[in-house]
Each structure stands twice: as structure tokens, then as C-alpha cells.
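Re: [ENG-882] Designed sequences occasionally contain unexpected residues at chain ends

Forwarding the minimal case from QA. C-alpha cells:
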């Protein structure tokens, strides 16, 4: 996979790349068969190449730091803070219900806070993107799992905004920023490999 990615990175320096569905393999081992496949879907390829020309995909995953985000919730939400203060020195076995209640309140506050951070990040990055694909999060600490389609020319500005967000919110979250990628999240190309 690493060798494949390195080849794609080099090709993308000079050409537009259209990713096809994983494990797409031609049944032909001669040029005539490959040409039939390309001719058959020429219009589709031409439209996608035009649409993707001069663009790339950048990926961003944002994960909350568990301890700081929970501390900020306790400080920000007065009801949680006061209930926690009342229970802190009481025996666990006598406060089971109240501790469960705090857990539910914190879970609800965490959802609210992560949604808020997600919106702040997207509001900063959407205006400089051509398209955004929000992917499913995994785990409650993931704030955002997104792919951004951007013009090559705006990448320095996009990088700067990601760095500004990291500086501003880095105490609460980690930004995992990857690219340059072919537009996997923005092109769903299925090819008839028989070329008939």
C-alpha cells in the first residue's frame, strides 16, 4: 500500500488522478482491451477529470483529549460542577444514583461540546474548500472525521487555518491532518473491466 501511495503522490504532482473502486482489475492484458474500456467510459472520465483538475483531497481527524475536555465540562456546566462537589466526599455506595446522573449529564455535555467544536472547525474550513465529506466518527472522543476537496492553489491557506485551529484548541484536541490524497471521498468510479 505504501508503494501504491508513493506512486500516486508522484503522479499527482503533474496529472489529475481519478481513483476507482478498490480491487478494480482489468480482465485484459493487452492494449486493445484497455483501450476498449477507456473508450466505453470516455465521456464519464472526461467529465470527472475536468471536475477534479487542479484539486486534491485532504483528510482531517480531530480527537478530544479526554482529561482536559472533561475538566472543561465540569467547569463550564454549573449543575454538573455543584452536584459533583456535593458527592465528592460521600461514600460511593450511598450515592450510586447521583453518580449515574452525573455520568449522564457529562455524556450529554460531551456530545454538545464536541458538536460545537465540530461546527467551529467546519465553519473555518468550508469556505476555502470546494467540497466536504463528513465521515462517521469512531469512539466518543472523535470530534470530526472529514475529507476536504480543495484547489491545489489554496492548500497553503488551508494549512494555515488548520494550524490556527490547532494552536487555539490544541489543549483540548489533537488534529490528525493528512494529504495529498486522490479524491477518494469525492469520486465513486465504477468501471466495466470487461470493456464490452
Amino acid at each position: 500500500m505504501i508503494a501504491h501511495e508513493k506512486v500516486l503522490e508522484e503522479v499527482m504532482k503533474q496529472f489529475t488522478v481519478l481513483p476507482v473502486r478498490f480491487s478494480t482489475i482489468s480482465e485484459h492484458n493487452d492494449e486493445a482491451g484497455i483501450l476498449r474500456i477507456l473508450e466505453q467510459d470516455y465521456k464519464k472520465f472526461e467529465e470527472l477529470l475536468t471536475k477534479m483538475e487542479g484539486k486534491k483531497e485532504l483528510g482531517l481527524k480531530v480527537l478530544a483529549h479526554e482529561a482536559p475536555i472533561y475538566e472543561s465540562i465540569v467547569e463550564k456546566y454549573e449543575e454538573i460542577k455543584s452536584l459533583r462537589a456535593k458527592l465528592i466526599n460521600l461514600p460511593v455506595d450511598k450515592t450510586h444514583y447521583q453518580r449515574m446522573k452525573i455520568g449522564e449529564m457529562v455524556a450529554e455535555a460531551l456530545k454538545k461540546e464536541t458538536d460545537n467544536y465540530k461546527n467551529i472547525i467546519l465553519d473555518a474550513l468550508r469556505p476555502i474548500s470546494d467540497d466536504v465529506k463528513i465521515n462517521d466518527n469512531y469512539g466518543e472522543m472523535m470530534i470530526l472525521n472529514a475529507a476536504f476537496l480543495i484547489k491545489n492553489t489554496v492548500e497553503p491557506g488551508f494549512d494555515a487555518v488548520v494550524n490556527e485551529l490547532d494552536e487555539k484548541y490544541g489543549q483540548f484536541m489533537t488534529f490528525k491532518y493528512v494529504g495529498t490524497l486522490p479524491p477518494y471521498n469525492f469520486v465513486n468510479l465504477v468501471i466495466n473491466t470487461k470493456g464490452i
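QA comment: On inspection the terminal residues look reasonable. The radius of gyration is 24 Å. Proposing we downgrade this to a documentation issue.
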